[in-house]
Specification:
By secondary structure, this protein is of the alpha+beta class. It has three domains: about 240 residues, f41 fragment of flagellin, N-terminal domain (Up-down Bundle); about 70 residues, no CATH class; about 100 residues. The strands form six sheets. A five-stranded antiparallel β-sheet has the order 1-16-3-12-13, with no helix packed on it. It has a four-stranded antiparallel β-sheet with strand order 7-8-4-11, with helices on one face. Helix 2 packs antiparallel against helix 5 and helix 7 packs across helix 8. The chain is flat. About 25% of the residues are buried.
Length: about 450
């Protein structure tokens, strides 16, 4: 925009104010375009919020759309001092008798005592062997103290951890301790210090040997390198705490109705949050009022949540039969007592109302796939809607740019005209003054 300013010196007119007013009128189309642009930007934000809420619902139903995900399980141990257990969605209900014969252990070796941490252990090399793999560690002056050796072993990543124990004795309290980084037979190690010379090399003796855990599951022998066992029974993770070959611990895995109910409640909350937002955006003067995304989402999801499931062969074909009903404003009400009764009466039928299993396409599965289509990154309604709004905003920006250039040209034109007018008036005033002076002189 031009920065040239002036006032009506000759005419007495406030020419700057006049030009400003004329420019305000000239820029009215730009103001209207900026208002439209702001509306489109608000619609983009509102659409993004709507998509986020829809995807939250998608995540909630995705936790219910397969048999494994629907079937929340709880696992308990009859003796948690011996064995504890956790269950994932991949587990199956059942009971298992476990006897722990021996726990997995770490190998631990200890050296003779040293008088201080800076005692010279010699220079040269040591080697650590684990399962046939040899790691060589070199020491050279001046890095050859007992503490240096500890640090070098830890830095080598050889599968052995080194520390120093102070046993409190008067003369040689410091002992090097080496511990296998993992438990089990495969973590057993050997250390060769014979490559050190010129000092007092540690002489290691064994405190504990590395060993696998040995236990039985329903009298079937099982071994494991760790006391944390996640691959013995699908979906179950056992933690062994103590060994007693005469003690049997019973692990029980059962369906967890409360866990399933919590997942359904998350779905209901997400649905109600989404539909509350749709209702708000459908009100008069709301950002998305009349937008097709609102109508499409409302129609599809209400049908999926309320209409009967076809072709399932299940005794339950509607959410309303298990305590999920639409209430005021189209929001879902969840009768947890009715849902719990349905689960206890016919777990399989309730499950098949939700999940995809074989030819059975449950409601949770159908809802998730419908939302997949709505939010598709190529041709979903949000992609199309956002692209359309982006195009409109870019077109407005181009139009505003053209109007701004036109306004600058117009302002420069006005300024030239008003300057010319001031100059003309000033010239006429000068001529008038001259003539008045001349006439006045003739009469004197």
């Amino acid at each position: 925009m031009s920065t040239f300013t002036f006032s009506g010196i000759a005419t007495g007119l406030d020419t700057s104010a006049i030009i400003a007013q004329l420019m305000t009128i000239k820029r009215l189309p730009i103001v209207r375009l900026e208002e439209r642009k702001s509306l489109f930007e608000q619609q983009k934000t509102a659409l993004s919020d709507l998509e986020t809420k829809l995807k939250t619902l998608q995540d909630a139903v995705a936790a219910l759309d397969t048999a494994n995900e629907f079937g929340a399980l709880s696992a308990t141990s009859s003796n948690e001092d011996m064995v504890t257990v956790t269950a994932s969605s991949l587990a199956a209900p059942g009971t298992y008798d476990i006897v722990v014969n021996s726990l997995a252990t770490f190998q631990k070796d200890v050296s003779q005592g040293f008088s201080s941490l800076i005692d010279n252990v010699g220079t040269g090399s040591i080697s650590i062997t684990i399962d046939g793999e040899v790691t060589q560690i070199d020491l050279s002056e001046p890095v050859n103290s007992l503490a240096d050796l500890r640090d070098a072993i830890n830095d080598a990543g050889a599968g052995v951890n080194a520390t120093i124990l102070n046993d409190g004795s008067d003369t040689t309290p410091y002992r090097l301790i080496l511990t296998s980084a993992e438990s089990g037979n495969d973590a057993a190690f050997s250390v060769d210090m014979s490559g050190l010379s010129g000092g007092t090399a540690p002489v290691m003796s064994n405190l504990t040997t590395a060993a696998d855990a040995s236990f039985t599951i329903d009298s079937i022998p099982v071994t494991a390198s760790s006391n944390n066992i996640a691959d013995a029974i699908t979906g179950l993770t056992f933690q062994l705490h103590a060994e007693d070959e005469n003690a049997t611990t019973t692990v029980t895995v059962v369906t967890d109705p409360e866990g399933i109910q919590e997942k359904v409640q998350v779905m209901v909350d997400a649905y109600n949050d989404l539909f509350s937002y749709i209702d708000t955006q459908s009100q008069e003067n709301s950002t998305l009022r009349g937008h097709p995304a609102l109508r499409t989402i409302r129609s599809r999801l209400q049908n999926l949540f309320t209409l009967p499931l076809t072709g399932s062969g299940s005794d339950y074909t509607m959410f309303a039969q298990v305590g999920l009903r639409q209430g005021e404003g189209g929001l879902l009400n969840f009768d947890t007592a009715e849902f719990s009764d349905a689960l206890s009466t016919d777990y399989a039928a309730v499950r098949d109302l939700f999940v995809e299993r074989g030819t059975n396409l449950g409601k949770a599965y159908l809802i998730r796939t419908s939302i997949d289509n709505l939010t598709d990154s190529v041709d979903g309604i949000f992609k199309i809607g956002q692209d359309s709004l982006t195009d409109k905003i870019e077109n407005i920006d181009d139009t505003i740019l053209r109007y701004e250039r036109s306004a600058e040209t117009y302002q420069a034109y006005l300024e030239r005209k008003f300057v010319a007018m001031e100059n003309m008036v000033a010239a006429l005033q000068a001529q008038g003054s001259y003539l008045m002076s001349a006439v006045s002189g003739n009469f004197q």
